[in-house]
Amino acid sequence: MKVTVDFEECLKDSPRFRAALEEVEGDVTELELKLDKLVKLCIAMIDTGKAFCTANKQFMNGIRDLAQYSFKDALVENSLTKFSDTLQEMINYHNILFDQIQRSIKTQLQTFVKEDIRKFKDAKKQFEKVSEEKENALVKNAQVQRNKQHEVEEATNILTATRKCFRHIALDYVLQINVLQSKRRAEILKSMLSFMYAHLAFFHQGYDLFSELEPYMKDLGAQLDQLAVDAAKEKRDMEQKHSTIQQKAALQDYSSDDTKLEYNVDAANGIVMEGYLFKRASNAFKTWNRRWFSIQNNQLVYQKKFKDNPTVVVEDLRLCTVKHCEDIERRFCFEVVSPTKSCMLQADSEKLRQAWIKAVQTSIATAYREKGDESEKQEKKSSPSTGSLESGSESKEKLLKGESALQRVQCIPGNAACCDCGLADPRWASINLGITLCIECSGIHRSLGVHFSKVRSLTLDSWEPELLKLMCELGNDVINRIYEAKLEKVGIKKPQSGSQRQEKEAYIRAKYVERKFVEKQAASVPLLESGTKVLPPSQEEKRHSGPEKSLLAGEQGAASQKAVAVSSDEARRESLFCPDELDSLFSYFDTSSKLRSIRSSDSGIQPSAEDSREHLASTVSANSLYEPEGDKQESSVFCDSKQPSPGLQLYRAAFEKNLPHMAEALAHGAEVNWVNVEENKATPLIQAVRGGSLVTCEFLLQNGANVNIRDMKGRGPLHHATVLGHTGQVCLFLKRGANQHATDEDGKDPLSIAVEAANADIVTLLRLARMNEEMRESEGLYGQPGDELYQDIFRDFSQMATNNPEKLNRFQQSDSQKS
Questions:
Q1: How far apart are CA 731 and CA 462, in angstroms?
Q2: C-alpha to C-alpha distance for 452 and 433, rounded to whole angstroms
Q3: Start-end of the ANK repeats (predicted)?
Q4: Residue 515 to residues 90, 485, 599: CA-CA distances in angstroms?
């Protein structure tokens, strides 16, 4: 260790000692300044480095955002992700480097300055103080007079003590100087060495990191070279395509548009055809707006801007038709008509109009096949086959739990196979016949026309509750017993699922159009099998000819209700359901409480045979889909030796709520709007109202019954349903277009009748329907704001009337004579 200031010189306190001290003190002061500056520079460097890391991190996040944006390009996404990960590692290494610099430079040098140099300064202050005291003692000792012995003595003692103290402080000061000079070298070099090692580790880590990334970067470079070649090739191809299309466009003949539209049913993107059309608005001014139309997913839609959600014009092309429109002034117009609305469109030329019309027609023709195939595949994948029949109790339980239309309808006996060819798991139905069909047979039925068969999908279409119950009341077994009664006698073989379409079509036409296999009516046998007694001829004649024995409609209703009660009790003994469930199932609407009241008042009392002959014009069938198949008993209308006409049979069966008998009467040629001149010109639909069955009314309406035919008193079905308080029937007739403004012979319309009877539910329905009708008439000014609410309310009433009729059963009538 080299001594900066000699200790011997310290004791001498020579000029050399003083000069050495001055030199050392100046050096220490300069060292302190240098170290302070270095520490400040280090702090600034660290702060700048952290700011760099922050900016670098933001840049790295930008790269990651770009990678996520390029998710469709795997090469770009993977490359940017790898680069951002590498940069993130480098940011981490930078942070480690700055932490080490802070510890090595800032912390160590600041400690040296604050501790060691401060000790030197403190020692210097003490040395300067004692040195000054020594000088004062020497001066005082020199100035004392010889003759003043006590002063001499005092001065001598002070000088001795001061010299002793000076030597002690001076030696400590010299020691501190020598230690500081020696230590500062080690501290400075140690901190700088630590700083350099931190950089060495940083660059080693970066080198290792990029060494791992280097092979990937080389591969990417090679791929970029290939991408440049491919891009040049694609550019040449696009230029060639551009030239070809330009030449083709020059050769094409355009009438009024720059583009030529062609339809493609098998387009890969599902868009059969698209292009601009003018659409006539439904407002009062009938303005025309140009919109972008397209046929896709069996729908006709349009949109104003690309970002706008498409507006659906026709939700299902199977339900619409298209036709030319030549009765307006504008050219090239055509109309797309759906069950709920029509849309007037205009093309830019005659060629484009023909192309659009052909595209819509072709889409309509293929919609059934496409929808049917997709539905069958999805159903077979998602659910087990329902081809096998379940036990009676399980089928009934499913029916009451409200499964899908397919499950509910297929659990009816015979419905698990196509009614006409026997193919298992049918997905289509004829709603006016009440049968299930395979997709091929449904297409044949559709070609017969809606006056013979109305086809609907069990999986693609929505089903109203009353229509679903109609399907459950009939079924393939019931209809085939009627329409295939003579099949074995005539020797015709029923086609199978694998038969040719021509064979199936010929058989279906013979079965439903020509009705070749229906058992002809005989004069001496009843129309239907009967499980009850039959009136003698004299009683039947008297009932129709003699006024003293004729039955009013109200008397028929009361008597028939008693018969319902009796037959219902008999059915319960064979049923798997509790009485409360059967009340809802035997009577679809508000007659259920009447049956209970009649049954409770007449319990244990059976009417006499004479009373039955005089008061019962018919009996209600106990045939129900809820009975076990083997225990079903069918009752029929009373008849004499001369068979009643099919119209009369339909009339009677409508009151009895016996759908199988009604279907048989229609199969024998009954006119659905047959008028009974002997009973105020009432129709079967009016009788169905009196019978109180919602599903019977639905059956007649589906088979073409006119909802506005009135009797001699000027009352139509809506009048009768209002008088009887049958809310569900009122709702049904209003949905089917009944005229609520018609008045009877007393000048009363249904609304005034409902108001007088204080039936709040029916008044609500009638007023809502009238309000909606007024809104439709003035749609040019106000649009149709009430349609959605109107439909929701009527839908709720339909659900309640079909599934929970007791909730609407507020209006009880003692008899039906008021109708």
A1: 18
A2: 9
A3: 680-712, 713-745
A4: 88, 10, 41
Percentages (nearest 5) of helix, strand, coil residues in the chain: 60, 5, 30
What does the block give as tokens for 5?
């200031």
Is the pLDDT assigned to residue 812 strictly greater than 90?
A: no
Q: Which domains does the chain have, with CATH numbers?
A: 7-247 (1.20.1270.60), 271-380 (2.30.29.30), 392-513 (1.10.220.150), 537-808 (1.25.40.20)
- pLDDT tens column, 689-710: 988 888 899 889 988 899 898 8
| 675 contact partners, CB below 8 Å, separation of at least 6 | 681, 682, 683, 709
Q: Please, which pLDDT band fits residue 164 given cuts at 50, 70 and 90?
A: confident
Per-residue pLDDT tens digits for 305-331: 877 788 888 887 777 888 888 888 899
> Dihedral of the CA atoms 206, 212, 214, 219 (nearest 10)?
-150
Q: How many CA within 13 A on the CB side of residue 483? A: 27
Report the C-alpha gap between 358 and 295 in whole angstroms.
12
Cβ neighbours, 10 Å, residue 20? 18
| pLDDT over 80 (residue 369) | no
- What is the pLDDT confidence band of residue 216, given thresholds at 50, 70 and 90? very high
CA pseudo-torsion sign 680, 686, 688, 690:
negative
pLDDT at 458 over 80: yes
Summarize pLDDT for 471-526 with one digit per residue, the tens.
Answer: 888 899 999 999 988 888 887 888 988 888 888 889 999 999 988 888 887 543 34
Average predicted confidence (pLDDT) for the chain: 74
d(CA 608, CA 559): 13
Is 727 within 8 Å of 759 (Cβ atoms)?
A: yes
State the SS3 of 3-71: CCCCHHHHHHCCHHHHHHHHHHHHHHHHHHHHHHHHHHHHHHHHHHHHHHHHHHHHHHHHHHHHHHHCC
Model confidence pLDDT, tens digit, residues 405-428:
778 888 888 888 999 898 988 888
The owner of tokens 């702060």 is 47
DSSP bridge partners of 344: 335
In this structure, the number of other CB atoms found within 10 A of the CB of residue 427 comes to 22
Residue 486's pLDDT is 85
Q: What is the 3-state secondary structure (H, E, C) of 60-122?
A: HHHHHHHHHHCCCCHHHHHHHHHHHHHHHHHHHHHHHHHHHHHHHHHHHHHHHHHHHHHHHHH
The CA distance from 359 to 264, in Å, is 8
Hey, which residues does 429 pair with through a beta bridge?
436, 456
- If pLDDT is split at 50, 70 and 90, which confidence band does 528 have? very low
Between 617 and 197, name the one with better pLDDT: 197
pLDDT of residue 96: 92
Vertex 791: Cα angle to 788 and 797 (nearest 5): 145
In this structure, the dihedral spanned by the alpha carbons of residues 515, 518, 523 and 525, taken in order and rounded to 10 degrees, is -160
List, edge to edge, every strand of the sheet that includes 321-324.
311-314, 299-303, 288-296, 271-280, 342-346, 333-337, 321-324
